[in-house]
Every structure is written in structure tokens, then in C-alpha cells.
Amino acid sequence: MFKSLMIIMKKELRRVFTDRRLIITNFILPAVSIAIIYSLMGFMIGRTSDEIEAHTTTILSVNMPAEVAALIDADETMVYTDMEISKADAEAKIKDAEYDYYLYFDPGFSQKIVDYTSGTLPKVEGLYSPKSDLSIEANYKVGRLLEVYRNQVLADRLGGESFLQAFSLETAEIELPKEDKGLDRSIANLIPMLVSIFIFAGAMGIGMDSIAGEKERGTIATMLLTPVDRGVIIGGKVLSLSVVALISMISSFIGVILSIPFSAKFLSSDGNFDMSQFALGGNELFMFFLCMIGLVGMYVTIISVLSMIANSLKEAGAYITPAYMLVMITAFMNMFSGSDVNGVSYYIPIYNNLVNMKQILTGDGNFINVLIAFGTSVVITLALLFIARKLMHKEKIVFPS
């Protein structure tokens, strides 16, 4: 039986790896396209950030007080033009990108600040365009500048800057061993999602062609004429599909890694991610591998069962697409979930493996939880494999009219 299983598996793998079209579309093209897309995204995001940082913010002001003007003059990234202009005209100039920000002060603003005791506060009004990145950045910059001015005013009223401080706060980060720090949290959230989607996508195309495609072409009948149990045939197809899915996932992930010099600006939280952070210990790699194998087993058997039910490639695609969407939703749920995990999550198929992957990458992996997830994955995989075997023995399924 084992020998027959290996023969079927080798036959399926030979079909894949001797077809240049399949090699290009399933292994080479994903890596190249992902590397190019992620690199372009990182390059464009980086260029946009650099343009915003290099831009000199232009402020159109009315009744600018000397104290605020001095703060702007001290900042090399901002300039202002003070003039009498209506709010409507100023709004039109900001829409036309002639200026980034409109800043209005009450007439006699500085004297009102000095004389203020109670009642109506002196008015400051700002205006920016939500459609312009430069104008939005100007809003942040002016807000910080006015906060500095506010502290100056309060310091003058109270008799010195020391009176602005009610207490001294000192915070420190808990020192963790290097092996417990894990990866950048943004990367740790992203990788399980990519691994999950890459595995399913890698198995989907070839899986449909291997089963539904052969049924549609009638070539599966030739294989059934051999003195081999049909359960062994579907088992060999599942094993070969698992190998293809893993190789396709690794290929796609290589594309992500190749893009890191350019894509780190949006992949990591601080934009300073480097390859040295991928250094995981032996235990972490083993646990991560178990999680991957659990996903591969479930995804491949799901695709196999749905392909067995379908009578054509088109029909198989219609059945498998909702499953693919479910995989993506589960991956995104894990990506955007918090660090606190409910104990029930470790028993939910697919989601439990993704949760464990993220915890492994952040240095919080637990071998017991990984084994629980792997056990549930094995149960689901065997159940689906049993269903696929039963379907393989039904003539109406294998030879649709």
C-alpha cells in the first residue's frame, strides 16, 4: 500500500514539475510578482513620506501674534504669510494648494492673552484640506506649535515653566532575553496571514486540476483501471498536493523577503525591520512547522473534497472560492486580534494554528497549545480524507453523467 501511495504521489509530482507552465505560474511567478508589488508599495510609501518631510509648510494667517510668528520663524519647515483675507477666500486658496493651512487669530490676540482672567477665551481658528497629505501634515505641525505657545503663556501666568510640571514620570521597558523578544509585532501579525493564504492559493489551482480537471477530461478513468485501491489514489494526490502547496508557499514567502529592503516602511511598525529578526530558535521553528503542516493538511483535504464533488474545473472553482474567502477572513481576524487570546481559540480549526504562529513569532509560543492545534488539525484532515475516500468509491461522483 505504501509503495502504491508513493507511486501515485511521484506521478502527480512528475506531472507538475515537468510542466514548465505550471512551474512558472505556481512557483516562479508568485515570488516575482509579490517581490515587485511589495517593493513598489514600499518605494511609493517611502517616497510619499520623504516628500512630506521635505516639504515646507505654507501658512496663510490673519492677525498673527509676534510670539507665534517667532516660533514659526524658528522652525525651518514652516513659513507664513500674514494678510487680511476672508475665510472663504482662504479656503479657496487651500483647495487650490496655494497654501497648506489657514490660521486666524482674534484682533489684539496678544493683549487679550495678557489681560485674560475669565470669560470668553481668545479665539484661534485653523483650516486645512482633508484631501491633501501636505495640508493634513500642516494641521499636525501647527497643533504642536500652538501647544508650545500655550505652555509659554501658562508659564508666564504661573511664574515659570517649572509650575507646568505637577509630577515627574519615569517609564522603563522590561528587559527580556533576546529569545523572548520575538519579531516586530507588525511583522508577527502579518506573517501568519501570508503563510495561510499562500498555502491555500498554492494548492488551489493544481488541486482543482488534479481531481476535477481529470474528471472533466476523463483521464482519471485510466488511473482507476490499475489494481490500486481508490483510497490510495486519493491519498497519493493529497500528499503530492501538500508538497506542491508547501513549495508554492515558500516561493511566495521568498518574494516577501526579497522585497523587505523596500517594503519595511509599511511592513514593520517602526520601518526599521531587518532580516536578523527572522532568527528563530530550534524549538520555535519546530512549533511553527507543526502549525504549517496542520494548515497544509486541512487546506489540501478541503480542496480535494470540493474538487471531488465538482464535475468540472469551473464548478470546482465555484465551490472552492467561498472556502478561500473563509481562509482569508480567518487570517485577517487573527492579524487584527489583540495579544490576549481566549482559551477556546486553541480548539478552533485553522484559527488556532494562526494564533500559535503569531505567538511563536512574538516569543510567546506554547508547545502544549501548538500540540492542541496540531491535534485538531489532524482530526479534521483525517475526517476530510475519509470523506474524500468515500467519494472516490462512488461511481456517480467519479464518472458524472
Structural account:
The protein has 401 residues and is mainly α. It has helices at residues 2-17, 20-54, 66-74, 87-95, 109-115, 133-158, 178-181, 185-217, 220-224, 230-267, 282-309, 313-335, 351-361, 367-392, 395-398, and strands at 57-62, 78-82, 101-105, 124-127. A 4-stranded mixed β-sheet has the order 2-1-3-4, with helices on both faces.
Secondary-structure blueprint:
Layout: H1 2-17, H2 20-54, E1 57-62, H3 66-74, E2 78-82, H4 87-95, E3 101-105, H5 109-115, E4 124-127, H6 133-158, H7 178-181, H8 185-217, H9 220-224, H10 230-267, H11 282-309, H12 313-335, H13 351-361, H14 367-392, H15 395-398
Parallel strand pairs: 1-2, 1-3
Antiparallel strand pairs: 3-4
Task: Please sum up the structure shown.
Helix content is 68%, strand content 5%. The model has no long low-confidence stretch (mean pLDDT 86). It is built from 15 helices and four strands.
Element-by-element helix/strand order: HHEHEHEHEHHHHHHHHHH
Distance between the termini: 31 Å
Count of DSSP helices?
15
Strand content: under 5%
What is the arithmetic mean of pLDDT?
86
Structural class: mainly alpha
Overall 3D shape:
elongated
- Biggest sheet architecture: 4 strands, mixed
Count every beta strand, where a strand is a DSSP E run of 2 or more residues: 4
Supply Rg: 31 Å
Catalogue the unreliable spans: none
| Helicity range | 55-70%
Which strands sit side by side, in order, in the main sheet?
2-1-3-4
